[in-house]
Design brief:
Elements (H helix, E strand, L loop, with lengths): L1 E5 L6 H13 L4 E4 L10 H11 L2 E2 L3 H5 L12 H12 L3 H8 L4 E6 L2 E6 L16 H6 L15 E4 L6 E5 L2 E5 L20 H4 L1 E7 L12 E7 L3 H5 L8 H10 L5 H10 L8
Parallel strand pairs: 1-2, 2-3, 5-6, 6-8
Antiparallel strand pairs: 1-9, 4-5, 7-8, 9-10
Helix pairs in contact: 1-2
This protein binds manganese (II) ion.
Length: 278
């Protein structure tokens, strides 16, 4: 069984179409989406329709929840954020909002012996960021169950999205995988001297998981394939004048530079990592 795992599309239709075509070419049996279908881009409605049509399992991301919520969620926020919230809600319908709010938090199954668990960000929240540089204890916490996970077992393999930065790591003998972002890839650490070609960052990232679906026996192989696809960024950016934060968005897509690097660097400081250049 071959399962494609996609995440963080963020309304980028060119990226989504390119990814789905590649998935089709690779003869995949199932597609799972880890959330953040909407927010940021111009084609939120179109992306939602395509994901609903093509994906077998769809989880809810923090942006799917936030931008589908009622206006009261932004009542204490700055005007700029309220305007952005309202703009995002013009891109989808009330039915879409209801649909997104009802999506599940977690999905899990056995494959070739391993308990595979998937969620958007962490086992307890859809908006916390665990990165590759976090401590072993933090990474281990990603495998623990919570009242929001499908079972109360400790997972063997965790696949998640949210941080838009693909990696694979181990915590003890468990495997932690971030599948990356289809439509809004960026690096957590940027350095003008040390970065290389920007195409190392700005492609569509996703993952294919392959093994014996549903098997609790360690009698077959399991594999993880990391995929990076070029797509037509400039085509996606046509008409992007309509986007409320158009300059931020263009820089994110063209350069893989997140609009709020200061926030990422602050979170590094909290875990004792000092990065001198933003
Ligand atoms: Mn996201």
């Amino acid at each position: 069984m071959k399962i494609a795992v996609i995440s963080d599309i963020h309304g980028n239709l060119e990226a989504l179409k390119t990814t789905l075509k590649d998935i089709e070419n690779r003869k995949v049996d199932k597609i799972i989406c880890l959330g953040d279908i909407i927010a940021k881009g111009l084609h939120q409605k179109e992306c939602l329709e395509l994901v609903k049509e093509k994906c077998d399992v769809i989880l809810r991301g923090n942006c799917d929840r936030y931008f589908s919520s009622g206006i009261e969620i932004v009542k204490d926020r700055p005007q700029k954020e309220i305007d952005s919230f309202k703009w995002h809600q013009t891109r989808i319908t009330n039915d879409d909002r209801e649909y997104l709010l009802k999506l599940p938090f977690c999905h899990e199954f056995y494959m070739s012996g391993s308990l595979i668990r998937m969620f958007h960000a962490t086992p307890t929240a859809d908006n916390e960021a665990v990165i590759n540089m976090d401590s072993l204890d933090t990474k281990y916490s990603m495998f623990l169950p919570s009242e929001r996970t499908s079972s109360q077992k400790i997972a063997d393999v965790v696949l998640y999205g949210h941080i838009h930065n693909q990696f694979m790591s181990k915590a003890y003998n468990k495997t932690l995988i971030n599948v990356g972002s289809v439509g809004n890839s960026f690096e957590s650490v940027r350095n003008a001297d040390k970065d290389s070609n920007i195409m190392e960052t700005t492609r569509c990232y996703y993952l294919i998981l392959e093994g014996d679906y549903g098997s609790k026996e360690y009698t077959s192989d399991i594999s993880f394939q990391f995929i990076r696809l070029p797509y037509n960024i400039e085509k996606e950016l046509e008409d992007s004048d309509e986007i409320i934060s158009k300059e931020d968005y263009r820089i994110e897509l063209r350069e893989g530079k997140y609009r709020n690097m200061a926030k990422i660097y602050d979170s590094f400081k909290k875990i004792g990592i000092d990065i001198d250049k933003i």
